[in-house]
Amino acid sequence: MDYDLIPEKEFDALCVDAxxxxxxxxxxxxxxRVIKELDVKEGLIYLPGQTERLLEDSDQARVFRQRRYFFYxxxxxxxxxxxxxxxxxxxxxxxxxxxxxxxxxxxxxxPSAAECQRRYDVDEVRYTTQLGEFLRSYAADPCxxxxxxxxxPSQAPDLGASSSSSQTTKxxxxxxxxxxxxxxxxxxxxxxxxxxxxRANDISSxxxxxxxxxxxxxxxxxxxxxIVHAVCIANGARxxxxxxxxxxxxxxxxxxxxxxxxxxxxxxCVVLDAGCEWNCYASDITRTLPISGSFxxxxxxxxxxxxHMQDECxxxxxxxxxxxxxxxxxxxxxxxxxxKLGILKGPRQEVARAGTVAAFFPxxxxxHVGLDVHDVAGSxxxxxxxxxxxGLQFDHGKRxxxxxxxxxxxxRVSNGKEPETAQESKxxxxxxxMVVTVEPGIYFCREYLEGYFLHDPIQSPFIDWDVLEGYYDxxxxxxxxxxxxxxxxxxxxxxxPKGDELLDVINGHGRHVNAN
Length: 516
Ligand code: GLY
Ligand code: MN
Known about the structure:
It catalyses: Release of any N-terminal amino acid, including proline, that is linked to proline, even from a dipeptide or tripeptide. Its cofactor is Mn(2+). By secondary structure, this protein is of the alpha+beta class. Helix 8 packs across helix 17 and helix 10 runs antiparallel to helix 11. The longest helix is centred in the middle third of the chain and has 24 residues. The C terminus is likely disordered. Glycine binds next to loops.
């Protein structure tokens, strides 16, 4: 197999691997941001990183994944570290484990203290063997009792075997304030973080392009997954930000399908949702490809609606814009499109009042992207949840289900016909340097549609079940890009081909040249 190797961009030193970059991970900048949000003058932030963990009943290590809050204040991506930040002294210290030579024999070395100092913008690098002593002397500080800010009670510092109970009680632990403060800091990205997310997008985009080049010659979903992994790993991105979703035919109607082992034969489309990580920063990209090289008329019609939803929503992205406003643009386009296809039927106003379009567009418009693919949202949710009724609610992480009832409520609120709930009033507005996905979709999931709406006296009359029957083979269509909010609008960080360019790549016609 050959791979798309991404040439490193000379103009962007941040794009090269963090370990070889002259640019340090901006841990100190992040620490100062956190303190601004925490709004305190004294105390200690204490964040232990992830340790090596074994598989249950096995001597084999689990795949290492660094704790994201720890990483944000250090940049260190290896086991057994801790980071402390002495707030009053503005001093950030990375504590790394001392590796005995026999451990190096088995597992290889870790970055030395000098190497860490070179890679990460921290004031000092020390060995964890000295951490207990440091904490004990901190606890004995005359300006007592010092507050230690931790994420969770389970991450409280261990003062070591020789600590007396009086020393332990001198540390006042606060596990209420740090996480919200870090979430507010993390939701707006630094330039370095944007460069990392951009690089992850470049590599994932190359993987999507390579799948498009091959799709007409592939025979099983698993080959798609293999290409994604191969291109990403060959470009230095060993981890995916989430499991690859390669759903063909009806599998494309399942939002987080993951088996990736069905034959492609006799299927119309494949939904490929895949994004790698670069230096712990995520990307998240979805394309829907015609397996034969061209969409069937029905698939083309649905794809055109979703592309229209995405184009219009991306155009809406700018500072100050409430996310719900952008989401509702997608809803309106989906409703008009499905009415035009005859899948939805009835007077537009009544269809809108029932929120029926959410049966086909059953999730929010997107989420933040950063150290996690569904990244922290600050203190306010990106999409304030609407109250659900009739038991049809489940929250699957940041991809909560949006039911017709919920959408009907959202539309009543947005038309001023119903007051919003206290929770809803706390909605988020976009800010420069946030990175969000814009990922509208339309799905024809027979189990979901027939299970909940076929016999629903409110929703069923607005769906033409005979027309719908002809669309089940389309499966689903989702299109997703990572969008950076800029000072006056947006920048699309995802360069995977889409639209006409995607069809040209699939059919080997090279890059699409716009006649205008
Ligand atoms: N790309 C997976 C998700 O956003 O849920
Ligand atoms: Mn996503």
